[in-house]
UniProtKB/TrEMBL annotation:
Keyword DNA-binding: yes
Keywords noted in UniProt: DNA-binding, Phosphoprotein, Two-component regulatory system
Record protein name field: Response regulator with chey-like receiver, aaa-type ATPase, and DNA-binding domains
SUPFAM superfamilies: CheY-like
UniProt key word Signal: no
Gene Ontology BP, a term: phosphorelay signal transduction system
Pfam families, A to Z: HalX, Response_reg
GO molecular function list: DNA binding
Response regulatory domain location: 8-118
Residues that bear 4-aspartylphosphate: 56
Biological source species: Haloferax elongans ATCC BAA-1513
Amino acid sequence: MTGDGLPTVLTVDDEPSLTALYEAWLRDEYSVYTATCGDDALQLVETHDVDIVMLDREMPGRSGEAVLEELRARGYDCPVVMVTGVEPDVDIIEMPFDDYLVKPVGREGLISTVQNLLTRQSYDEHVREFFALARKKAVLEAACDGSSLSLSDEFTELKAEYRAARRRADAARDDLLTEELGEVVLHH
């Protein structure tokens, strides 16, 4: 968060008109930084406290995928939403993003995605992992032919990871409820 207490969003797209549009949509509720290339995006993350990155997948120079890999390699675990014209395919399974939006993206969809990602930040890491995998699975199921997904070893592995993450998220939820109930009993 910035000094003004607002969560920060970095929008990265090689089309300046889109970063300006996203900034206009978000600036009432968030501090917004913009970048039109991957290198500038990485510099902004180094010099500013960024809560969410909205990242175009295909950009000249350093691609959005390369920026995402570099962010994770540098230890940044802030939520990343890919905002792209590239239809998803099983190639997204290994990408460590939190959400995936296909352009054109409307104002309400963009704002609700940012709000949801910020809300998820307060969740246990297992719950956040579950939501990221659930979103990836849903994006692929909506965009890809079911028969091609059924033949994909990567998608089969994603479904297994999703089920395991769900079990971990359920256990984290149960632990939290047990702790909260214990606190209620202690304070009464």
